[in-house]
Structures are given as C-alpha cells and as structure tokens.
C-alpha cells in the first residue's frame, strides 16, 4: 500500500501564516476525526458525537469549520506556531500513520498512509491597500484549498480498518478527551528564499544513514 | 431494481439516508423550523433516482428583489455498489460526506452574504424534491461535487451549484443610496419557478453571536417579507402595496395628504417633494397596471392624469417611472421625472416669484399650440368621481394649461373647498396680465383650490404652537413685490423715460464734480 500524498500551496503574508495553516490542518482533521469509541462486550462499539464550530480568521477573509475540541485546537496551534513568520518558503507536513507493532528490540513502525503537504510562501507587503487585497485573495485561495481537500477526502481511498479494542491505539490517537483523530504527526521545514532545503535534507539523510 | 441487500441492511440504509437528509451523527444543533420543513418536504420519502432533494438558498432584498445564490442537491443514481457494507462503510462515508458539506458551506460566496444579512437583505431557503433547477443561478455558475457514497441501492451524490456573478448585488443592493423621494414601496416578487414550498429565512446563527435582526418563525414567506421590511416612519407618505393593489384604484394611503386639484391654484400647492407631477404632454395613458402607487391619488391607471402640481416648496416635480419597463410589475418604482420640452413651461413650479413670472411669461410668449395640451384632472383620493379629460387652448391667464375648462365638476367635487387665504394670490394673477384683465384672478382660483391639511415630512404635531405645517401655510404665498408688478413697472418705465433728458442735463452740469470723484477713486 502506497502512501497517498497531497500537496497544497498558498502564498500569504507573514501574519496570515498561522491562520492559513490552522485552516488547512483543521479542515483535514475534521474529516479524519471521529468521536471517541466506546467498546462494549461482544466486540461491538459505539462512536461518540463530534461537535463542530466555525472559526473566523482575523487576518484573512475566511471562515473554516473545525472540530469542537479545544485540546485538539491547542495541540495544532502549538505546532503551527513553530513556523516562523519571516520571508521565505515554509513547508508543513501532516502525516497520518498507523503503528505496526514490532518485536523487540525493534521499535514500533510508523507507516504513513496519507500525507498532506502545505507549502507556504510568505510575502511581505508594504501598504495597507495591498494587505487588504491580500486578505481577500488569500481567503479565496483557501476556499479553493478546502474544496480540494473535500474532493480528496471523498474519493474514499484507503483508510485503516476499524481496529479491535486492543489495537485502537495503533490507528487512532486516543489521548484526547473529546475527539479521536487518526494518528498523525506534523513536521515543518523552513527554508529561506534561496532554497537551501535540499542541502539540509541531504545532510539529514547522511546523518540518519550513519546513525543506523 | 434487484439487489441482494437484505432487509436489515435495507432498513439501515434507509435510516442512514434519512438521517443524512435530516441530521446525521454530527452534533448539529437542530433548528426546529428547518427540521420541520425538511420533514415536510421529505413527506416520508427519501431521495431516489429521478427524485433529488434540493435545497435552494436565495437572497431577498428589502426592495423585494431576490436572487438565487446556491442550490444543494442530494441525488441518487443507478450505479450500485453491491459489495459495500451498509452498517460500517456506508455509515462512515455518509458521516464523512456530512462533514464535507459543513466545510463547503463556509466556502461558497453565499456564506459571506449570510453573515451580513440584516436590514438590507435576508437569506432564504427552500427545500423541494424533483429535478434540480439551475436556471436561476445566472451565467457561469460553478458546481462543486461534495462527495459520493456508493450503496447497494444506488450511488448518492451531494453537489452544490453556486452563483459567482454577484455583480447585480454589489452595484445595487449594498450601496446605501437613499430613495430619491423617500418613497418606499414593498412588492412581493413572484418566483420564476412556482413551487409548492415557500421560502424561509436562514437566521440560525449559534448563540453567542450577534444575530442582529431576529425573525419570527412563520410559515408563510409573505409574512416574513412583510415583517422583515418595514415601511418608513408614519410621518412620511409611504405606501405598502402588494401586487394585488395594482388592480384596484384605491391604494392604501398612510398619510393624510390630500391633493389640490386645479392648476390655477398652482402657486398654492403644497405638495412636498413626495408628490409627483406628470405633465400630460408626456403622453401617459397606457393602462399600465404596473404603475406604482401615486400619492394621494385616486389612482386610475387607465386614464392619463395629471397629479397635483407641486408648489413653491416642491422644487423639481417628479413623475413615476414610465412603463417602459412595465413588464417588471413587481419591482419597486421610485418617482423620477423627466419633463418633456413641450411641457416645461408647465413643469417648473418655481418657488421664486421671479421665476414664476418668467415662466408664465414664457408660457404666454410661446406659441399657443404649445399650450394646447391634453389636460386631465386627477381626482383626489377617496373621491368617487371619474376623471375627465379636458382640452384647453391657450387662455390668457397664467398657468392656463392647468385650468380646468369645466369648473362645474370642481364645484360639485366634494374635495374642492374654498381656500382660506386666496387674497395673496390675486395680486400675482392680476399683475401678470398686460391688459390688466383679471381672468385668472381670485374667482377661479378660489373655486379650484382645495385647502387641505397636510403634514409635511418630518414635522411633528402638537409640539410647538407654530409647527412646520402652519409656518408653511402662512408663509407659502407672500404678496408679490410691488417693484416686480408689471403695471407699476410699466408706469415707472414711462416716467423714467420722460424724465431722462432732464436727468441728463443735470448730470452734464455736474460733470466736473463727477470727474473729480472718479479721480479720487483711482
């Protein structure tokens, strides 16, 4: 099974970065979260209810829907803030994975099954008028991105099977109290305009290879 | 359609589709009215092949214009997926589809409009079954396929078609342009596609938000419109007319404004800016049932009529929009006026005496055929009298074209009463005649003039002893300046001419003094 990969690109102003990224993250996680599973006897389970709420962006003319889970929101904000607001190109990856138990001494394997990559190009604007135009344009772009996300989600491609109670932690993140998203991790890659990311990637590859 | 689906799965599938149509596993707050309407529309059935469930979102302005914004369509086609598991896969996919629906609803242009709805416009919804009707979305509408879910009975598809051409809205609806003459006429627009389901407002913001205007939960959309778009304050002359009223000659008048009838009482006329004047030369006369309400008028649109003449305060007289676009019977009309040249002499009731004089002299100077016009006197409100058409040749009286030829009708007219203070008018009438005839003097004017009790705009009664209306009446017709009267002027002119040589002689005698004076100035 190959990992499904989707790439989204947005150009935003510095102060819009956090909101744009949260909008994408929340929209994806809205589709990749369920209510908490409540397992019963005889191998059956019931699914809790998930609430939703609207989030109005302050720096973008845009509103998105997120899961009504403050815990999840806090976790995502912490990740989104790691991205700097300076000029340049930033890349955020939201990876959904499954854990595969391995025998000792090997650690559990993380097998990604879906990766969302958001490339953020940060621009600096000089005048207020440009910023106002940017507000509207970025809003429209994000609307398109939401439509793209929804189209991908509804292709109904591979999704992990619903696990037994003993294996639920291999598929879902059960650490949150009110929602149960698929296991995910967020990583960032920040480069400057010159695109030195290739160098850092190569360096990392060599290091990892040597570490093994 | 033959399927291998068992009865339990079938039951589950129906349940899931019904829940999807109404409400699914997400914690979506139910709005009782919407649930009720949806259930009513479903009427115990489910979306099926050829029977799509459509939700139409439209916008309706306070002026009565409406526009479809988007149409959500839940369809089912014949493509079956027999392998799929109902209780697990279909359930999860329908749940995903509902989440996608939530996400997409915030992305369409209608969402931003719905957040700003209030006094200027409201967003309405309508649920119907059958063929989806996309014609109202304008050109170039976009379609988003939100998602599909295959089931053993068929494939469910949810799509949204939304309008992108909002140009009509941006240039007209959202600009705060006040009505030209403070006239507000509410119309109810007929839907282009008549359907059994009425429109309902979408006013369902969650608690904690400033909802602004809240609408009563009513079933009938007409009532919603009525309560949503209120008319102007009672002191203004405002009508609320439904389309039905066009068929009857008695519009609802919310003000006590009555109309003086005759043209000779021209200078008396009080009409405020709200009253509209329509010269007969414009050739009004078509039986235009789309003709909007006319103020204080015994409205009979089948006859050409002339409304009361604006008075000194009136400034620019107005006439309602001509029925060039009479097809839009439902649209609001604002009173605008484009006088034709032939009637301009009649159409300029100036508040200045000098202008009045000049106009009337113009009228007299112009060829008589210009003054020959079709004059149709308008019957005042609440008067059960037929309108008469009178043709006049030029009379040697000012404002002759407004003088009714037949005064008997006016005498019998219950609305016509002698004015309280006609004396101020006589000098005006008399002074305008070069031959000194007083053809147009008091007698006719008294008979024709109807002194009415009117309430000027924005005035408040019983607050001051001298309110705006009283002030207006008292100072409306000041006496003519003596220096402007032609007779006196003519006499003084003759005297001046006679005395001119003497004056010249005196001036010549004092030439040196004058020169010295001029030098001091330099």
From TrEMBL, chain A:
Q: Which GO terms describe its cellular component?
A: Atg1/ULK1 kinase complex; phagophore assembly site
- UniProt keyword annotations, A-Z: Autophagy
Q: What is its main location?
A: other
Give the subcellular location: Preautophagosomal structure
Q: Where are the transmembrane segments?
A: none
What are the protein's GO molecular function terms? protein kinase binding
UniProt-listed GO biological process terms:
autophagosome assembly
Entries under InterPro entries matching the protein:
ATG101
- UniProt-listed PANTHER family: AUTOPHAGY-RELATED PROTEIN 101
What family does this chain come from, according to its entry? Belongs to the ATG101 family.
Q: What's the protein called, per UniProt?
A: Autophagy-related protein 101
- Organism annotation: Pipistrellus kuhlii
């Amino acid at each position: 099974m190959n990992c499904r990969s989707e790439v989204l690109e947005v150009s935003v102003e510095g102060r819009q970065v956090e909101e744009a990224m949260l909008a994408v993250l929340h929209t994806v996680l809205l589709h990749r979260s369920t209510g908490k599973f409540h397992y019963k006897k005889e191998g059956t389970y019931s699914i809790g209810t998930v609430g939703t709420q609207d989030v109005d962006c302050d720096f973008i003319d845009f509103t998105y829907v997120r899961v009504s889970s403050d815990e999840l929101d806090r976790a995502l904000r912490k990740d989104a803030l790691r991205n700097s607001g300076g000029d340049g190109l930033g890349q955020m990856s939201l990876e959904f994975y499954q854990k595969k138990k391995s025998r000792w001494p090997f650690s559990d394997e993380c097998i990604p099954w879906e990766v969302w990559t958001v490339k953020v190009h940060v621009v600096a604007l000089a005048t207020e008028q440009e910023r106002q135009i940017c507000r509207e344009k970025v809003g429209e772009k994000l609307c398109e991105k939401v439509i793209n996300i929804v189209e991908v989600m509804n292709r109904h491609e591979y999704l992990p099977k619903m696990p037994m109670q003993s294996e639920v932690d291999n598929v879902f993140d059960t650490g949150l109290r009110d929602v149960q998203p698929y296991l995910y991790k967020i990583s960032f890659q920040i480069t400057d305009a010159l695109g030195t990311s290739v160098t850092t990637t190569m360096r990392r590859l060599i290091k990892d290879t040597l570490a093994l | 359609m033959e399927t291998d689906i068992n009865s339990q799965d079938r039951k589950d599938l129906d349940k899931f589709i019904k829940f999807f149509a109404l409400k699914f596993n997400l914690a979506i707050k139910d709005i009782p009215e919407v649930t009720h309407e949806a259930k009513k529309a479903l009427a115990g059935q489910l979306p099926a092949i050829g029977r799509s469930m459509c939700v139409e979102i439209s916008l309706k302005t306070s002026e009565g214009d409406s526009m479809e914004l988007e149409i959500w369509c839940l369809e089912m086609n014949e493509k079956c997926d027999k392998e799929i598991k109902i209780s697990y896969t279909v359930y999860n996919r329908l749940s995903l589809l509902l989440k996608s629906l939530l996400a997409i609803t915030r992305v369409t242009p209608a969402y931003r409009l719905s957040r700003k709805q209030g006094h200027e416009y409201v967003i309405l919804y309508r649920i119907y079954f059958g063929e989806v009707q996309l014609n109202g979305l304008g050109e170039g509408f976009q379609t988003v396929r939100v998602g599909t879910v295959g089931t053993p009975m068929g494939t469910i598809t949810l799509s949204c078609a939304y309008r992108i051409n909002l140009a009509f809205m941006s240039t007209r609806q959202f600009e705060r342009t006040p009505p030209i003459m403070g006239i507000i006429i509410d119309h109810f627009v007929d839907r282009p596609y008549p359907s059994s389901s009425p429109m309902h407002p979408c006013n369902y913001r969650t608690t904690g938000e400033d909802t602004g205007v809240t609408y009563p939960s009513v079933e009938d959309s007409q009532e919603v419109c009525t309560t949503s778009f209120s008319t102007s304050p009672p002191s203004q002359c405002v009508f609320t007319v439904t389309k039905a009223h066009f068929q009857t000659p008695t519009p609802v008048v919310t003000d006590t404004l009555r109309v003086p009838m005759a043209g000779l009482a021209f200078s008396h006329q009080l009409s405020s800016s709200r009253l509209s004047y329509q010269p007969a030369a414009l050739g009004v006369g078509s039986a235009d049932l789309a003709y909007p309400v006319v103020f204080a008028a015994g409205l009979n649109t089948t006859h050409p009529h002339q409304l009361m003449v604006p008075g000194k305060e009136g400034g620019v007289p107005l006439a309602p929009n001509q029925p060039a676009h009479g097809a839009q019977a439902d649209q609001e009309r604002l009173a605008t006026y484009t006088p034709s040249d032939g009637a301009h002499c009649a159409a300029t009731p100036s508040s200045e005496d000098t202008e009045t004089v000049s106009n009337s002299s113009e009228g007299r100077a112009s060829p008589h055929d210009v003054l020959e016009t079709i004059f149709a006197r308008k019957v005042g409100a609440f008067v059960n009298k037929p309108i008469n058409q009178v043709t006049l040749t030029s009379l040697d009286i000012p404002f002759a074209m407004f003088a009714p030829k037949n005064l008997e009708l006016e005498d019998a007219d219950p609305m016509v009463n002698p004015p309280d203070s006609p004396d101020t008018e006589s000098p005006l009438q008399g002074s305008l005649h070069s031959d000194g005839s007083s053809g147009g003097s008091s007698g006719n004017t008294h008979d024709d003039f109807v002194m009415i009790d009117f309430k000027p705009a924005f005035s408040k009664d019983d607050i001051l002893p001298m309110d705006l209306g009283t002030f207006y009446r008292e100072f409306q017709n000041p006496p003519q300046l003596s220096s402007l009267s032609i007779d006196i002027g003519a006499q003084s002119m003759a005297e001046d001419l006679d005395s001119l040589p003497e004056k010249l002689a005196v001036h010549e005698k004092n030439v040196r003094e004058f020169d010295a004076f001029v030098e001091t100035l330099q």
